[in-house]
Design brief:
Elements (H helix, E strand, L loop, with lengths): L3 E5 L6 H12 L2 E4 H14 L7 H7 L5 E6 L2 E6 L2 E2 L7 H10 L3 H17 L2 E5 L2 H5 L5 E6 L2 H14 L6 H17 L12 E4 L5 H17 L2
Helix pairs in contact: 1-9, 2-4, 2-5, 7-8
């Protein structure tokens, strides 16, 4: 059988890390929709597109061809044929992704690919609207969250370990502002699907979160 797991939640909640772990445990395909939106954001930045001009975003996004494939077990995000993994996790790209992902033209460009993958393979997808919009019929829906303070500390640790100078208070402020944008945007706002299970990772380890989601999956699919 083909199974779909949707993991939604705010920025910095650990969705990508957990989704990868769960996909590996179940031998499913991990589809990082956030990376696809970041690839689009990176493309828009390289084209000098203004994040405050929705018409310019809508027009420019048509020039981006984005796909995902696996090479030697690693997920590769391709932008117009080029591996752009190394450019997707900067703050600048993240902020542009938050803005551009609300643009209907950007969403329409990526939606079909994401749904088609889920029709033919068992997948784990993470993002902001997987369970509400992209895979509304997913077998398992998770809303993964954590406090803004916890998410800021995690991001601060990640950046400082990479040798990047950063300010914890500014990171938390950016996270809170991004939450507000994501929750209040017109197109597919961030919200918990009615049939999603809430998992708060603020006081949980990665192993504990993954184990809880696998438990929920086994419980849900055992009834089918």
């Amino acid at each position: 059988m083909i199974y779909n797991i949707a993991i939604d939640g705010p920025a910095g909640a650990g969705k990508s890390t957990i989704a990868k772990r769960v996909a590996k445990e179940l031998s499913f395909i991990y589809v990082d929709t956030g990376a696809m939106y970041r690839a689009m954001a990176y493309y828009l930045l390289t084209q000098k597109v203004s994040g405050s001009d929705p018409e310019e975003i809508a027009s420019a996004c048509q020039g981006a061809e984005i796909s995902i494939e696996y090479r030697n077990g690693e997920q590769i995000v391709l932008l117009n044929g080029e591996n752009v993994n190394a450019f997707l996790r900067t703050e600048e790209v993240g902020n542009m992704a938050s803005v551009s992902s609300a643009n209907p033209s950007v969403r329409a460009r990526l939606l079909d690919l994401q749904r088609n993958l889920a029709k033919v393979q068992s997948v784990v997808m993470d993002g902001r609207d997987i369970g509400t919009t992209i895979l509304p019929d997913a077998d398992v829906k998770i809303f993964l969250t954590a406090s803004a303070a916890t998410r800021a500390k995690r991001r601060y640790k990640e950046l400082t370990e990479r040798g990047e100078a950063c300010d914890l208070a500014e990171i938390q402020k950016d996270i809170e502002e991004r939450d507000q944008r994501d929750m209040n945007r017109e197109i597919s706002p961030l919200r918990q699907a009615e049939d999603a299970e809430l998992v708060d990772s603020s006081e949980m380890t990665i192993d504990q979160v993954a184990a809880e989601i696998l438990r929920i999956f086994q419980e849900k699919t055992a009834k089918k």
